[in-house]
Amino acid sequence: MRLLVLGTGVMAKNQLRHFAHMDGVEVVGAVDTDRDRLKLFADEFGIEKRFLTLDDAIAWGDFDAATNVTPDRIHHPTTMALIAAGKHVLCEKPLAENYPKALEMTEAAETAGVVNMVNLTYRNVAPLQRAREMVLAGELGTIKHVEASYLQSWLVSRAWGDWRTESTWLWRLSTGHGSTGVLGDVGIHILDFAAYGAATDIDHVFARLKTFNKVPGGQIGEYLLDANDSFTMSLDFANGALGVVHASRWATGHLNELKLRIYGERGSLEVSHRPSGSDLRGCLGENVESATWREIEAAPVSTNYQRFADAVMSGLQPDPNFRHAANLQKVIDLAMITERERRELKV
Q1: Does residue 269 sit in the same domain as residue 216?
Q2: Which residues belong to any copy of the Gfo/Idh/MocA-like oxidoreductase N-terminal domain (predicted)?
């Protein structure tokens, strides 16, 4: 697979640390509108072909697939151009700013017959994959209740940087700079974590969003700090289970932690993922009577990057695909409407 990298920021560097060491993968070109950033990136990874526009890269055309690591607003036009050129695409999350655009990208990719995949990175968590296997095997019986949380603390900690002075973080707090808040930023991750782990789709949604005052006047320079910082969400799942999902950037003591609890009539599972590692616990069988939880081993799994490369080389469509990400974007869009209208909506 001859791969083009579109966008050369921090996430692109993280991806290249995976792609650069894969058998059968050759990174042949990079694109960025910032000439200096492009040069530093391409020099670091030994990439010969460098383009300041995607149009120039497509005109060159000597690549099979692209990984789209551009800002959220740029995903739609750039991915549509790549699909029109017949290129396979791995796109960062969210697929698009809203469901209509995400659906347009999905239908275009499916019509063109190109491999399409969204980088929902927590699919790489082995305990999540093991939990799903157990649910599908019926080890928990009928699923009744699901809890999921995504907790960050960068509004109360400088562990990742200082949001008061760094544009990398400030834009995420401002709708005028393209942010849809914590819901748009990590909502797709925790919704996928919950629905994938519990092996079901989301059927109904009702959400509450909250923006807390962070500085006097609610503004720093050109950044109006009006994007949501926390959300809570009540869900009905297609399998009949009830769900509660929440996320916050004010979760003191949690740098970046995802947790999923799945409760079934015959047992329960808990998946935890944090920067230091991941684990899976279960309360199953005779342990249900004593409420005893035990660690469950989870075998390593392939990363999204490896599965995308394998899919391009085999021609077999992988998961999570564009349609899945579009459906999650629909849930997020409806969640924002439920906040405004204070009513539950069917997905």
Answers
A1: yes
A2: 2-119
